[in-house]
């Protein structure tokens, strides 16, 4: 994944932020919306596209576009930095190779401890019963 090529494929749109904030919210377009067309990307290989499409299925639109937005800061420039950082973290996680889990054997001491606890619990319950003469 070449980050410099991907940055050139990103499209940004500045819109007015929602919520409280008075005149600043009403006048300044500080919210940044990032969109990345995954299907038509030239910087990702076909395997990377397929993997990202599978792992980011809930984040994609019907046209296979990833849309992220940020309105945390009053500055449009800082919001743009934040949303780019989020995008690359998301893509890194999506393209990261997952190590297969190696099943491990349950240690003998753990099995012994579990059985001992069961036996002890059984004795406690036995002692609560009414004696059988």
Question: What topology does this entry show?
Answer:
Layout: H1 3-9, E1 11-15, H2 23-27, E2 31-37, H3 46-55, E3 65-70, H4 76-95, H5 108-128
Antiparallel strand pairs: 1-2, 2-3
Summarize the structure.
The chain has 133 residues and is of the alpha+beta class.
Overview of this structure, please?
The chain has 133 residues and is α+β, with helices and mostly antiparallel strands. It has a domain at 3-95: Double Stranded RNA Binding Domain (2-Layer Sandwich). The protein is 47% helix and 14% strand. The chain has helices at residues 3-9, 23-27, 46-55, 76-95, 108-128, and strands at residues 11-15, 31-37, 65-70. It is elongated. 11% of the residues are buried. The mean pLDDT is 89.
The general outline is elongated
Structural class: alpha+beta
Q: What is the CATH domain class of the domain at 3-95?
A: Alpha Beta
| Unreliably modeled segments | none
Strand content: 5-15%
- H and E string: HEHEHEHH
User: What is the mean predicted local confidence, pLDDT?
Assistant: 89
The second-level CATH architecture of the domain at 3-95 is 2-Layer Sandwich
CATH topology assignment of the domain at 3-95: Double Stranded RNA Binding Domain
Enumerate the strands of the largest sheet in spatial order, edge to edge or round the barrel.
1-2-3
- Oligomer state equals single chain
Please give the share of residues in helix: 40-55%
First-to-last CA distance: 79 Å
Helical stretch tally: 5
Q: What is the gyration radius calculated from CA atoms?
A: 27 Å
Q: How does the major sheet shape up?
A: 3 strands, antiparallel
Instruction: Tell how many strands the DSSP assignment holds.
Output: 3
